Amino acid sequence: MLSAESLKKIDREIAKYPPDQKQSAVMAALIVAQDEKGWLATETMDEVAQYLGMAPVAVYEVASFYNMYNLAPTGKFKLTVCTCLPCGLQGSLDAADHLKSRLGIDFNETTGDGRFTLKEGECMGACSMAPVLLVNNKKMHDYMSNEKLDTLIDELSKR
Amino acid sequence: MSELNLEIDGRPVAVAHGATVMDAAVKLGIYVPHFCYHKKLSIAANCRMCLVEVEKAPKPLPACATPATEGMKVHTSSLTAKTAQQGVMEFLLINHPLDCPICDQGGECQLQDLAVGYGKSASRYEEEKRVVGAKDIGPLVAAEEMSRCIQCTRCVRFGQEVAGVMELGMIQRGEHAEIVAFVGRSVDSELSGNMIDLCPVGALTSKPFRFVARTWELARRKSVSPHDGLGSNLVVQVKQNRVVRVLPLENEAVNECWLSDKDRFSYEALASGERLTRPLLKQGGEWREAEWQEALECVAAGLKKAGPEVGILASPHSTLEELHLAGRLARGIGGCADFRLRHSDFSGDGRRAGIPWLGMPVADLDRLDRVLVVGSFLRKDHPLLAQRLRQAAKRGCQVSVLHSADDDWLMPIAHKRIVAPAEMLAALRAVGEGPIEESLRSGKNVAVLLGNYAQQHPQAAQLHAAAQALGHRVGFLGEAANSVGGYLAGLPAGGNAAAALGKKALLLLNAEAELDCADPQAAIRGIRQAEFVVALAAFRPASYFADVLLPIAPFTETSGAFVSTEGRVQSFHAAVRPAGDSRPAWKVLRVLGNLLGVSGFDYETTEQVREECLRGKDVAALLSNRIDLDAISASAAAPSGLQRIADVPIYFADSIVRRAPSLQRTRDAQPPRAWMNANVLRTIGAAPGHPVVVKQGDGEARLVAALDDRLPEGCVRVAAAHASTAALGPMFGELTVAAVAVGKAA
Fold this sequence. Notes:
Chain A is an alpha+beta fold. Chain A contains seven helices and five strands; from the N terminus they run ααααβααββββα. Chain A folds into two domains: 4-65, Orthogonal Bundle (Arc Repressor Mutant, subunit A), CATH 1.10.10.1590; 77-157, Glutaredoxin (3-Layer(aba) Sandwich), CATH 3.40.30.10.
């Protein structure tokens, strides 16, 4: 069950659209739900569907379309590396390889201590600052050289 | 409004504003290849197969999504169009498996057909093809080979737009896109089979038909559905004298291009091991097989002995001819015959101005703008009529409901009144002052429709009169295939269904007394006290009450006619030969007529019977929903105990669907439970999921309690027509429910 606070946030999103088009708020509602729960379980999507008066499968369609929604639990920090073409040409694949060897995991895997999950991301609109990486969907890091990556990992490991 | 003039492939055509290039091409009879476009669904334009060249447009445009404009010049098979179509086909085939030899769709596959016209003989694609996992979405629709899917989303749109519930969706994106039901759910819509027809490839196929036959081996015969009052038009497909599949025959005025799952999958029962194939006689308490001659003579002797004391109970799913002969037989020997087995109020007989019917053509349901549905489990009783009202609701029709249960009809409901069965009449009379009447009064095209529940209600005639008193057009949603036909055939003759049960000899035509009658206990009492009982049945009965069992042919094995709820007489021929020694029931009745010395029983064909039945009758003029009845006081003694709300579950409504194995595995065929609201549950001290004993009259049923807070106070919903509740009494009445202590239940 989503908390009253989350539902209040979702209500605020719903209010942005005409009353008979509540489902327009589905993306925002899923973000709110994910922020609270960490990931989108079937029951969570069901609840969002019911709250917005949509078919559950329609919510699932949206949640599975965008890869910033987590359909499975992640580690404490989800690192999403952009591997689209411009980033790829400027070394994001090397950055990803560095992360893989440093963390000992592949894409879509989580470290044994449950701290890091590595994900492949789509274009984040910051191609000129490649390689770029997102932490937990919210904080972007750019020009990620191996040194900067190590610093980031060290810092996150302490948190 | 003026029309738009455009030119397609050099031929001029005029279409209305808002029409698409595809509409214009269809009007000219020009075929534009397509997959995702379907005339009954919204436009998706995601398969891109219908790309055509439009002069002055820089790129080819999808015909299905391009609005026609004045002076437009379209080429559907120019070099540009062809190249575009061939390019799309190449892309579609990239990930499509080359498994046509083992694909059920082979031979009727749009992709296969169009690949011949637009595809290359070999693929340039050498990389790995994508693989999509199999899904289990229920017992009717097979989604085992989802790699075949080309993402046209017809099935998804069908769910959203026609069935009213989105049960399938397309998840992920790009190369990973796939059609799924929500995590672990099945497709439970009562219209789900239409997705099989809609799927242009072999991704969604029929589970019961899986690997049974190739389509080109099948003979196609036209037929008519024997189930609900709509009379859906069928194509019955036959291989080696066996019905192996049923598809819709398109008829815009009746079923459009759809079929309910009941109509589509009930054929499985026809070849089931439960068919009665030999006449059976009971001698000294033992059953033995007999020859027809002996059996018929035995029946004739038994009926003769009873003299005029013969009651005929005919199923309303019987053909017009069977009902006509049953009526003639009853009149000839002075007995009585009726087909309204689930009705309990016959006080309207002789008060009606004509045959109760829908009150309008079926196709007019879409055009209603205000409607009140009284006493109907609409979706389950009339899946396709519900679909029509759903389309009307989408166009702004305000649908209001007066009923005893509040099931989800999957359409917007303007106003609803949910009352206990005993309060139905008072509530209907009170509609005149409420918001429902305000809604009705604001419409131009208004109807009050009485459903099965209202027709089976013990105050059915008063409900009819009360509906009429509202001053709007009244319509009846026909309960069974021949609910109108039965009256047309001259039934009831000599007495009603309740009276027939008191006779010395009983003839059951296609009826299973304990499941098809309004009051199973009364039916069984009637049978027990009768000296002689003969049952004409297509299937071995659940309980062998009869003295003689005569095997008769179901609708696929006999010719005949059904008169739909809109008064449409639809005749059909036999699709296959009768199974074993079974005979068409009209022939059995004819011979019985002869043996009993009733004059004029010399028919050679069903056409002769039908001709006699309909001679000099103008069917349209005989239909009328006027009733002349004095209103009685609505408040009969208020019931003190719990009231029963009985629905007839969709897959138990008649003897054929009861025995269709795949339908019996669906969610709708789960055993009935004792549904009640939280208050009633608390009163009897049970929790949802706990066993309870339901007692009515001198019988009881052991059911599981279930919670439905939308049910009115003081009511328990216990389905009829099911073996587990057949020991109970009438569909309407009082019952008691007691919780069974869980520990002692065993």
